[in-house]
Amino acid sequence: MCGIVGYVGDKQAVDFLLEGLSKLEYRGYDSAGIAVYDGAKIRVEKSVGRLAALRDKIKDDVPQGTIGIGHTRWATHGRPSDVNAHPHTDCTGDFVVVHNGIIENYLTLKEDLIEKGHSFKSETDTEIVAHLLEEVWNGDFEASVREVLRRIEGSYSLVFMCKREPDKLICTKQDNPLVIGIGEGENFIASDIPAIIKRTRRTYILNDGELAVVTKDAIRITNRKGEPVTKKVFEVNWNAEAAEKGGYEHFMLKEINEQPKAVRDTMSQRIAKDGKCITMDELKWDADYLNSFNQIYIVACGTAYHAGLVGKYYIERLVRVPVQVDVASEFRYRDPIIDEHTLFIVVSQSGETSDTLAALKESKRRGAKTLALTNVVGSSIAREADQVIYTWAGPEIAVASTKAYTTQLILFFMLALYMAQIKKTVTPERIAELIAALKQVPAQISETLSDTEPIKTFAKQYGFNDDVFYIGRGLDYDVALEGALKLKEISYIHAEAYAAGELKHGTLALIVEGVPVIALATQKSVYEKTLSNIKEVKARDAVVIGIAAEGDEELQKYVDHVMKVPETDELLLPILAVVPLQLLAYYAAITRGCDVDKPRNLAKSVTVE
Ligand code: M6R
Fold first, then answer.
1. 305 falls in which pLDDT band (50, 70, 90)?
2. Fewer CB within 10 Å, N- or C-terminus of the chain?
3. 2 has catalytic annotation
4. Domains (ranges, CATH) in the chain?
5. Which residue lies with its CA nearest to atom 10 of ligand 1?
């Protein structure tokens, strides 16, 4: 996965290109590059490493010109290196391209192009696109690009530059995102809105197969057949600050602290005025239809998968319909049993995760009705699903997902309540009671966020341990999985989550003196059982940090430290209990000097398989 940008206007292109790329580094940051037309030739500059390395490389000789493209890379084909960094050029240097995605038939095309005399510099799949354009060139930039698109297979968003028609950029997309920012006497192209929001809020969001010819004064969009497409301008309604750090040291910390608002925004328009029922106006399925499903699948990756596990719990408990949860990369290859009576739910913050998108397409092929829970309006998954409900978390930039998770939990909870209303599986009194508890959640998250000192202390104390274990039962186990993932991905500490009852079936062998165990004990229905598991690890001299709800005076007798979260219905406790775990991961990563927002080997949204 990568980030791409383009600029055409009156100003120096390099300024926007570097600014835009800095906002897209969350998509990949192992190398970066730009290409600018200087009036005589297209000058390409690229460098392995972060964008800072590229800035440094060009600082004494900045490329001059008012049209250009740029790229920040997350390696797939070819290791991170100067030569594999984008932009890529053909043999003459007249054709230049940046790409996000994978060209699946690149090897066949490459062999053919080599036979025809083209010589390749990089190991990437992308370079063939530039050579192919050179090969099929017929004197017309747009027509030649269309010919290239007929020959390539795979997923892409692409921006092309051509020295022979140097006043325009051509961009197109298939399965990867691309937006065009509409300016005055200038226009912008980017993989995502944060790159352009400082310059304009007026955008076109390209659909698969659309192609745009962008000059400084015009944007002409056509479909695959070359027919004009009339698009609605999409006005971005969040501000530039929302995509910035807003005074926090890291996006992750900012996003953790934004959770009260994100949760409030996600629930606000979905609770009836009298507070007695859930409204889901965006769901266009009627009651009979929602009643007709006999099973539900929830499919997602990473943190979104963990949200799906909680979703299963909510739906089974409140709606009494069987739910299966699967990671998307497994689901898509295992011949699942689904049909038109299956409700297939995908969860994705970005709405662009390749495996999740593929699973969604597969479920549709098998006849399921599909629903997406996503955070990004107009994303590929939002467009592919039959129905969409959005988390209103705002842009999530840090690689480690935080506010997306809590808002996904909120949305699952509300969806389960909504379905329960329709199916009458929960009494109106209980629904009203749960809604009343739900409305307290934003304030309760704020309360949990108000005192982070003990968490900082634990992080300092245990931040240098090699292994950390997380245990819990029921919903606590689901939260434990998410807590362990957070710690692993940003602090690089080996962390594992176990269903507490499973310890004695193997894992207990790993528990020795001084090993930190984070024990979640928020669920009253399994509290005593969890307590006995905690005693098991304490008996092996583990250092236990318990997570409990306020009012629990018991747990502290058996653990070394306790972190308390406000008391609420046990169904809602995961939304509160995850917050100290997010903070613990954050401060552990800080203690270890890790790059919190850009952990090694990872990217924010995984748009390749
Ligand atoms: O955008 P998505 O929600 O589809 O992303 C899914 C995972 O890649 C994502 O949750 C990942 O696990 C996060 N880095 C976890 O913090």
1. very high
2. C
3. yes
4. 3-239 (3.60.20.10), 251-439 (3.40.50.10490), 453-591 (3.40.50.10490)
5. 303
